[in-house]
Design goal:
single chain; 127 residues; alpha+beta; 6-stranded antiparallel β-sheet; 3-stranded antiparallel β-sheet; 2 helices; globular
């Protein structure tokens, strides 16, 4: 049952993506995004064995939608949702490559900001 609920949460999160806004200054102009963002869950095998039941990590992935881009940072919920491990940024990605961060299970992702060599981008998710 927990697996079904987790899968449902992932589907709702993916369908809840509402916008990719260029987030420079106070203006947000809709443009084609050079990155896409995915929010999901992944089985944490170590925690699952320790607690003798399935345990999941949440993650946020930024995927390059252009030939080459540098991801400088990924910030979740305006910095209120800290990554579980130190992320290695900046990182150069080619088209189709992705990098991400793991976040606490207690975080409910509402906003993801991605700083890139092509500007800063904001993704908003409906709950």
């Amino acid at each position: 049952m927990k697996k079904i609920m987790s899968l449902l949460c992932v589907v709702v999160a993916l369908l809840g993506l509402t916008a990719c806004d260029k987030a420079d200054g106070f203006f947000a102009a809709k443009k084609e995004c050079p990155v896409s963002v995915t929010v999901g869950n992944e089985l944490d095998r170590i925690a699952s064995s320790a607690f003798n039941q399935p345990a999941y990590l949440h993650y946020v992935l930024a995927k390059s939608m252009v030939d080459e881009i540098t991801i400088n940072y990924i910030v979740v919920n305006r910095g209120n949702c800290e990554p579980l491990t130190k992320a290695e940024f900046p990182v150069k990605l080619k088209f189709g490559e992705q990098r991400g961060i793991s976040i606490s299970r207690q975080c409910s992702v509402s906003e993801v900001s991605v700083g890139t060599s092509n500007g800063n981008w904001k993704f908003e998710f409906n709950e």
